[in-house]
Amino acid sequence: MKKLVWAVIALFMVTGCTQAAPPAAVPIETATAQPTETPADAYRNVYEIYVGSFYDSNGDGMGDLRGVTEKLDYIAGADGLGADAIWMMPVMPSPTYHKYDVTDYYAIDPAYGTMEDFDELLAESEKRGVRIILDLVLNHTSSKHPWFTEAVAEIREGREHKYFNYYNFAEEKVNSTYYATAGGYYYEGDFWDQMPDLNMDDAELRAEIVNIAEFWLDKGVGGFRLDAAMHVYDYEADNLEFWTWFADECKKINPDVYLVAEVWDTDGAIMPYYGTGLTSMFNFGFSGPAGSVAGAIRRKNGQTLAAQIENYAKLIAGRDPSAINALFLSNHDNDRSAGYFANDEAKMKLAAALYLLIPGNSYIYYGEEIGLTGRGIDENKRAPLIWSVTDTAGQTNGPTAMTERPQMGEGVLEQLAREDSLLNYYRELIAVKNAHPAIARGVPVAIDTGEKALCCYKVTHGDETVLVAHNLSEEPATVTLPADAFAGEIAASLCALDAAADAFTWDGANLSVPAYGTVILTGR
Ligand code: CA
Q1: Which one of the listed residues 188, 262, 265, 414 is annotated catalytic?
Q2: How far is CA 29 from CA 17, 33, 320, 469, in A?
Q3: What separation in Å is there between the alpha carbon of 231 and the centre of ligand 1?
Q4: Is 188 one of the annotated active-site residues of the chain?
Q5: What are the pLDDT digits (tens) for 239-293?
């Protein structure tokens, strides 16, 4: 059954992935649909945390929830990064270090602390206006989850089936992702034999899923990051139905819920999920060493990137005008960007300027802001954040299977103290973005300046229009903007390389941007 899915994916890849025809399940009318309600502003700069490697509050070497609470001012404060949401990788009990295989959806893994610790984190986050986004893994459970062990017991003891129906059991080995169990049965484990896939056709399980969402939303969680969203069913139409249902159920509980899904695939495969009611899908095409952002830097081509930014926003808006793009450079599954930028701080700064200022929500993977390294096996990508190279307070040990430990000349404290550090560049960029709400919220319109190196677009929100221009070349660029392209003045400028204070100029028609510079103009 999976074969068809892969064939469809292959087709998207062949066709260039940008303009896939909408599937039958999503009516084309969504192109002009208006949002039926206006939820609270969901635009955020989100900090992704692997809790185990973040901050250790009690000296056992394991990062924990109290550690996150202790470091909220670093994540969200004016003297810190200035983010306003946190995506926490799974915190529910699990036999693995990464916890993407849950054994209890209503509890906190003891390695990370207690439910009281979690409630305290929520309360402290709320005080600071920080939204907590919980990783929710619904495609599968742990094979040690009582639902699964009960399901196997039902088979073994010839009992009436209840939990049996929560999973995909078959009397034959349907394909290579099916594993033998009791009574001659096989069960589906798409990712691993210790991760049995859930059967979302079961009404009792769906009711349980609603309970789980309600449990966390009632506590004050602001939303969910939805793992493996395209794997819940074998067919796209079934997945779209499931997530439409899930989004509806969450909105009944909290109309302001924010939902971001991992559809780790091409643009063509991602787009249909816009229109299900999920707020965001991660923009994989812009991320990673082969993605649009790193590719634009490598090719010194900002012009194409600006067109891609406009086009991607149009594709999203065509499906759901209230949806929000979700940008990132790297995440817990990918090599960190410090590696593919060869630890070149100027390139990392330029990349930060590019992805943080693309309209939508930015996801900053913990450590990205200091250029933390990590590549190869997953454990290496989830290595400890380095707080200081001299002060060991809060320092975690990281996953035991790590084969490479980040070697850094500076940690967070040292970079906070160095004025021109990558961390301070992140802080400045986020401050600029927050000072001009149009940057996150506007619909980007590319401006073709005729200069290949320049990534230039404008966005309007409310009564503010902002022009963003980045120079991706190592040479200064001076361009004449098309007549009537923009009226306004320079509001902020940053440069990833040394540049004279007056290197940015704008006279209403001619714009100069130094090498690796970023300029924000604001007007009406
Ligand atoms: Ca600890």
Answers
A1: 262
A2: 21, 6, 10, 34
A3: 33
A4: no
A5: 999 999 999 999 999 999 999 999 999 999 999 999 999 999 999 999 999 999 9
